[in-house]
Design goal:
The complex is a heterodimer of chains A (219) and B (253). The N and C termini of chain A lie far apart (57 Å). Chain A has nine helices and no strands. Chain A has a single domain, classed as MetI-like fold (Orthogonal Bundle), CATH 1.10.3720.10. By secondary structure, chain B is an alpha/beta fold. Chain B is built from nine helices and ten strands. The model of chain B has no long low-confidence stretch (mean pLDDT 91). The chains are: A mainly alpha (219), B alpha/beta (253). At the A-B interface, helix 5 and helix 6 of A face helix 2, strand 6 and helix 3 of B. The structure holds adenosine-5'-diphosphate and magnesium ion. The site of adenosine-5'-diphosphate (ADP) has 10 residues of chain B, from helix 1.
Chain lengths: 219, 253
């Protein structure tokens, strides 16, 4: 392994890491929104729509991201929707992550005891007020551990973005290996940059989990 | 006789084919304390839940100051504000401080001035001996303290009627007293209450009227002395005997 090679490649990897992070963060934000909406639809058993949500969740959870990306990237232009690779990457991540986030939030919502809802009602709160002040705050904190696990999972999944020619970390590494055979240095940088992205998230995750366990909800 | 606050008129409550309340009628006058007793599963909790519109009824009517209580009603939240309820299980909101547990509904539902609500909440906490726990979280309180906070939370809405569903049943014995004392004070200050309890001594002390419920019907109703000393029906006699039997067993241990 040659240090000068690493130093030379560093800016390329930095740029790729920023792209990976940018797409990852935007994709995850959309995944959170989709997940929250789907979880609420299921929790409140909204007629008809909840069956569509159930279909979406099964579809999204039981197909690989790579295939979802291909569908979006090659399929959408076929039906006349033009788009670019970045938007496709974000859409793919949001499509995949939405279902995982929905499951995390749904388990949190279902863990809120009925008596909490009834207490709120008996204080005269409307269903909206009850959702906003009583159900959601409790549901969100119980769903924190699976939520953080999903964030890490989705950030890792960004490594398949290279398949739709996004110049992300994986793409950059493969490119450099293909062009100059600098396999060791490229793989080393690839691992290091993914660690730089994921370790803080992982640490934040265990911190939040510890805080929640300490807070010890309930009795 | 004082004004009628609550009128329960011939209500029927079914869960599927199981008729849990079968033609219950009684009136509650302003300032009256009603104690409901009866064997487990006879429908006491269900009765309170119907009064608070947490359960729809299949027949009869419940009216509070002339307004019908109906879970399908648009004015439901307005009616519920007039009825406070404390449950058997500790039901404080775990993510909110003691003070916030008490102030959130007066602020958000009744749109009252936050400063004024807070002042009232602290004064009420003072009265139940928990002024110094205002900033604690529910998990930091004992069962008895939680129930006292739950009572204050209901009180701070200034309800016309308070419902208590076996609020000491899940408590350790040494904590029962502190909660019952709070309720005795409320009775003394003229609050209208319906109390479901298994504490017979307490029932005798606090009740203006006792209602004995069995198998979804009112079997006996009267002033506490007559009910506890001279129950008229076999079923009431048998029910009261179960407590006697228990007290003998405890004595021999
Ligand atoms: N949500 C429910 N669904 C079906 N049956 C119920 C429900 N709630 C109560 N019951 C039934 O109603 C009866 C009365 O229950 P409850 O009012 O809780 O009795 P109590 O409070 O007097 O012990 C019981 O037989 C119980 O099984
Ligand atoms: Mg009960």
């Amino acid at each position: 392994m040659r240090i000068d090679v690493i130093v030379r490649y560093l800016p390329l990897f930095k740029k790729a890491a920023l792209l990976t992070l940018k797409l990852g963060i935007i994709g995850i934000i959309f995944a959170i929104l989709i997940g929250l909406i789907c979880a609420l639809i299921q929790y409140y058993k909204v007629p008809i729509i909840r069956h569509l949500v159930a279909v979406y969740i099964e579809l999204s959870r039981n197909t690989p991201l790579l295939i979802q990306l291909f569908f979006i990237y090659y399929g959408l232009p076929k039906i006349g929707i033009s788009t670019n690779a970045e938007i496709c990457g974000i859409a793919g991540l949001a499509f995949l992550g939405g279902s995982y986030m929905a499951e995390a939030f749904r388990s949190g919502l279902e863990a809120v005891p009925d008596i909490q809802v009834e207490s709120a009602y008996s204080l005269g709160m409307s269903p909206m007020q009850t959702a906003f002040y009583i159900i959601l705050p409790q549901a969100i904190s119980t769903s924190m551990p699976p939520f953080m696990a999903n964030v890490i999972f989705l950030l890792k999944e960004t490594s398949v973005f290279s398949a739709i020619s996004l110049m992300d970390l994986m793409f950059t590494a493969k490119d450099l290996i293909g062009l100059y055979y600098k396999t060791t240095e490229s793989l080393f940088l690839l691992v290091v940059f993914y660690l730089i992205i994921l370790l803080p998230v992982s640490l934040l995750g265990s911190y939040i989990e510890r805080r929640l366990r300490y807070a010890g909800f309930g009795s | 006789m004082k004004d009628i606050l609550l009128k329960v008129d011939n209500i029927i409550k079914r869960f599927d084919n199981n008729t849990v309340l079968n033609g219950i009628s009684f009136d509650v006058h302003k300032g009256e304390v009603i104690v409901v007793v009866g064997p487990s599963g006879c429908g006491k909790s269900t009765l309170l839940r119907c009064i608070n519109a947490l359960e729809p009824i299949q027949g009869g009517s419940i009216t509070l100051e002339g307004e019908t209580i109906n879970p399908a009603d648009k004015n439901l939240t307005a009616l519920r504000q007039k009825v406070g309820m404390v449950f058997q299980s500790y039901d404080l909101f775990p993510h909110l401080s003691v003070l916030r547990n008490i102030t959130i509904a007066p602020e958000k539902v009744q749109k009252r001035n936050p400063k004024e609500v807070e002042k009232e909440a602290l004064a009420l906490l003072e009265r139940v001996g928990l002024r110094d726990r205002a900033n604690s979280f529910p998990r930091e309180l004992s069962g008895g303290q939680k129930q006292r906070v739950a009572i204050v939370r209901a009180l701070c809405m200034n309800p016309d009627l308070l419902l208590f569903d076996e609020v000491t049943a899940a408590l350790d014995p040494e904590m029962v007293r502190e909660v019952l004392d709070v309720m005795l004070n409320l009775a003394a200050s003229g609050r209208t209450m319906i109390i479901v309890t298994h504490e017979m001594q307490f029932a005798k002390a606090i009740a203006d009227r006792v209602i004995f419920l069995d198998a979804g019907q009112i079997v006996e109703e009267g002033d506490p002395i007559s009910f506890f000393e001279h129950p008229q029906t076999d079923r009431a006699q048998k029910f009261l005997n179960t407590f006697e039997f228990e007290s003998v067993k405890n004595h021999e241990k």
